[in-house]
Design goal:
6 helices; 5-stranded antiparallel beta sheet; globular; 35% helix
């Protein structure tokens, strides 16, 4: 549990570059809290590929769900999902798309996933050091397949990145992680992984679950091609679980 911010510490949250007396960067901690309150994203590495599922959280009945994008294509072999301030995520994902294209033009080869993740993480870290700019209030989950096989990474607001077999970021992180820890199996094919993921969302969101809220994509090891999961496939999965 995070310690309460005392009155004496309040002056240290005016800048992302100023450490508090106990060694904390309060603006960065606030950014991490924004991610914990953001819409949920789930990633999973399977036997034959990697998948991403995300909650779009449609708040108004008159809102067009297709206008909300939570899972993005970065390159032919890489996808991403952002949680937190999605406007920050959009800027970073567009930057990732540019980096991937520059690598392809310069070296005539697709970028490896770790290099892309490091570039985005470095940009995030820089915004915890520069005065006059706030940290990016977003965590980004990158999923893809390269010469090292299917991979899943999460970039934290601090500029740290971690690799996972399966993970969740966002408001339902704790509940969904508990389900994944019990039901995830690295030998699952993508189809089974999607069933586990949709079932987990269904159980956690309960009566608020709506398949129209779910955005998803997968990348198979066999062809390394990013593909969005169509609504009909998601609806069939939801009926089976």
């Amino acid at each position: 549990m995070q310690p309460t911010i005392t009155h004496q510490m309040m002056g240290y949250d005016r800048s992302s570059t100023m450490f508090s007396p106990d060694g904390r960067l309060l603006q960065v901690e606030y950014a991490k809290k924004a991610v914990r309150q953001g819409t949920t994203s789930l990633g999973m590495v399977c036997k034959d590929g990697v998948l991403l599922l995300a909650d779009k959280r449609i708040l108004e009945k008159l809102m067009i769900g297709q206008s909300i994008e939570k899972v993005f294509q970065v390159d032919d072999h890489i996808g991403a999902s952002a949680t937190g301030y999605l406007m920050d995520g959009r800027v970073l994902i567009e930057r990732a798309q540019l980096i991937a294209q520059q690598n392809k033009v310069t070296y005539d080869t697709p970028i490896d996933i770790l290099s892309l993740v490091k570039d985005v993480a470095n940009m995030k870290q820089a915004y915890t050091q520069f005065g006059g700019a706030r940290p990016f209030g977003v965590s980004i989950m990158f999923a893809g397949v390269d010469d090292d096989g299917p991979q899943l990474y999460v970039t934290d607001v601090t500029g740290i990145y971690f690799q996972y077999k399966a993970t969740v970021i966002g408001e339902a992180e704790t509940q969904l992680k508990e389900i994944l820890e019990k039901e995830y199996d690295a030998d699952m094919p993508l189809e089974q992984g999607m069933k586990v993921a949709v079932s987990a969302f269904k159980r956690v969101f309960g009566k608020d679950f709506d398949i129209d809220r779910i955005d998803g994509a997968y990348i198979k090891t066999s062809d390394k091609q990013f593909r969005k999961i169509d609504k009909e496939s998601l609806k069939k999965l939801a009926k089976k679980v």
